[in-house]
Amino acid sequence: MFPFQALGFTPASQRDFIAKDLGPALAAANLQHLKLIIMDDQRFLLPNWADTVLADDTAAGFVDGIGVHWYFDGLTPASVLTKTHNRHPDKFILSTEACQGSGIGQHKVILGDWSRGESYAQDIIENLQNWVGGWVDWNLALNTEGGPNWAKNQVDSPIIVNATADEFYKQPMYYALAHFSKFLPPNSVILKSNLASTTNPWGVKRVSKASGLQIVAAQRPDGGLVTMVMNKGKKDVTLKVVDGPGGGRSFVVTVQARSIQSFVWW
Q1: pLDDT at position 218 over 90
Q2: CA 52, CA 16: separation in Å to the nearest integer?
Q3: Which of 146, 178, 211, 232 is deepest in the core (most CB within 10 A)?
Q4: Please, are residues 62 and 117 in contact by the beta-carbon 8 Å criterion?
Q5: Angstrom distances, CA of residue 53 to CA of 38, 50, 59, 91, 253
Q6: Per-residue pLDDT tens digits for 51-69
Q7: In angstroms, rounded to a whole number, what is the distance separating the alpha carbons of residues 51 and 145?
Q8: What is the pLDDT of residues 171-206, one digit of tens each?
Q9: How are beta strands 92-97 and 225-231 bridged, if at all?
Q10: What torsion do the CA atoms of 22, 27, 28, 31 make, to the nearest 10 degrees?
Q11: Is 70 in contact with 44 (CB distance < 8 Å)?
């Protein structure tokens, strides 16, 4: 089916392989510190895949987390991730693969394509809002053709290397990832956040889903709070950020059109 090395499991065969072979082999080799991730495939397979594997107590005892890819996300809402978390709260969920330019008919490498950066940010935000603890790009750097790749499975990458010119180019995908890797350090805790309509003396414009805004907020381990905002719309949006349900601390910002911005405060 694929022009490169691959393997396939059903949920049941993976369950049995872990319970009877892989799990005991890791234990016998004193490698229990390794994190074992099941599925590592598309989220439309959830929650059934996790339910099938983790229903077996022996297999579940060896499993640490659930891996998901971003391909075909349009077929299944991100809420299935929360549903899976609620069924298996002791297992982490990690987004283990994503890339642009992999679709049929898509250009492999497009230098400076902002929409590809937006797609990364949108997927990360959706994942963070639904109990996913991390997000991994498939490739850190590729050449200008989207390789090297002996199977000719070229794709785009956050960093493109032009070896002939001895240059490298940081793509919008790179800067989208930077907002989350820089402002959302390990051990941060995602907070519930909402976009709400406002009509107050500040003169803040009404904010709705039609504004093109997407947000995620978190408590950082250093005690700070961070809100990351993406505006996919064509107009600037004035946003009032309110810290807490009682309307405590607040500040007003302008989120520029087609931008990703991060705000940190203590």
Answers
A1: yes
A2: 10
A3: 146
A4: no
A5: 8, 5, 7, 12, 46
A6: 999 999 999 999 999 999 9
A7: 40
A8: 999 999 999 999 999 999 999 998 876 555 444 444
A9: unpaired
A10: 100
A11: no
